[in-house]
Amino acid sequence: MAAGRAGGVDCPTIRKVKCDETRPACNRCVSTGRTCDGEIGAASLPVSSRGRPLLPATSTGSSSSLSGKTVPFWQSISHDLTDRERYGFEHFQNVTAPALQAILPSPEWVSTALQLSVREPTVFLAITATGTMARALTVLMHSSFPRPLIQEPALEATRQYGKALRLLRYRLNTAASMEGGAESTLLVCLLFVCFETFRSQNSAAAQHAHLGWNLAKSCSSYTQGMYSPSARFFDSVFSQSNGMSAFFVDKQHHDLDCCSDWRDLSSTSFKSWKEAVINLNALATAGDHLRAEFFQLAKARTSFTLDSRVSTNGFCFCLTACLSRTIAISGMQATRLQQLQIAHRRWKEAFVEHEDKLKRRDLRTFLLLRTKHLYSSFTLATCRDSNELPTDHFTNDFADALDMAERYVKEEGKPISATGQETQTQIRFFGSSILPTLDLIAHKCRDPQLRYRAIHLLSKIQKQEGLEDSQALSKYAQAAAEVEEGRAQSILGLEEKLLPSTLPEEARFSDVVTVGEGARQIFRLICARYVDAESASQEIEVVEYEAGSVPLRLCSSQRVLV
Question: What residue intervals traverse the membrane (predicted)?
Answer without folding.
Answer: none
